Amino acid sequence: MPKRRKGRKVTGILLLDKPAGHTSNDALQRVKRLFGARKAGHTGSLDPLATGLLPICFGDATKVSGFLLDADKHYQVTCKLGVATDTGDAEGEITEQVGIPDLDESSVEAALAGFRGCIEQLPPMYSAIKHQGQRLYNLARQGVEVERDLREVEIHQLLLEDLREGELDLRVHCSKGTYIRTLAEDIARALGTVGHVIALRRDGLGPYRQPQLWTIEQLESCAERGRDALDATLEPMDTALEQYPAIELAADLAFFVSQGQPVFVPKAPSEGWVRLYDAKRKFLGMGQILDDGRVGPKRLIAKAA
């Protein structure tokens, strides 16, 4: 007999406020235990130093987690100038200290202008990228540095929020794959000095823009009131997909889609991903418009009733 999986079936998305000093996986496992959940996963790591939005997908919601992995991110970041570290943040060892030129808002703005739009970044050694089967951060801890390929990312918005003596507060809206530590280091060099991140908070991801976040302490308080109170903190899984058009399927079309068959839907979009619902507004999963105009089911969540 197949081994029965432990835990209860929970479905939904928790918008966790990850605490500083914890890895994303640590936070995931702690929350998973609180919910007693059978299946859960996060949607892209935050550095241990970082706080803020870490969506945790439970149960069937893990099927849409990839859409959040690909989504744009929003950050508040503080960069300390004049000091470089081996990790690019405050958790690393100091590797360089240099003077800071006289800066004002106009000189900083001139430097920031060069980092807006499509830019290339060299991934840091302290990152989760794999090289010959090993994570780069594991190699870095061994004192090994390997060649990395430049990666293209897009900085949609880069704003100076505050300029203090030796520190910059920035707001960043960027594409997936952007390394904020690398961005801060590169901006510091453009200003004629070095720098590293001392504070980082993610407050937006994809459709979630400055949403209500739940701390682990708040979740523990909910758990004391029972699992219904805990489950009430979860967002419906389709809230992660609000940027995609919604299609309501008649009963016969919903049936064929639930069997994995593409269907023609009147007035459907001509391309791209779509959200699929039955006539009772039950979320069925994601579809994609095929070359012949049919809606092809791609990531189904549940069969139509």
Question: Would you write up a description of this structure?
Answer:
This protein has eight helices and 17 strands. Strands 1, 2, 3, 4, 7, 10, 11, 12 and 13 form a nine-stranded mixed beta sheet that branches. A four-stranded mixed beta sheet has the order 14-15-16-17, with helices on one face. The longest helix is centred in the N-terminal third of the chain and has 12 residues, at 24-35. By secondary structure, it is of the alpha+beta class. Strand 15 (273-277) and strand 16 (283-289) form a beta hairpin. The mean pLDDT is 90. It has helices spanning 24-35, 65-69, 105-112, 136-141, 180-190, 216-225, 227-231, 251-258; strands at 12-18, 40-42, 51-58, 73-81, 83-85, 94-97, 117-121, 130-131, 134-135, 151-164, 167-174, 195-205, 208-209, 246-248, 273-277, 283-289, 295-300. Helix 1 runs parallel beside helix 6 (216-225).
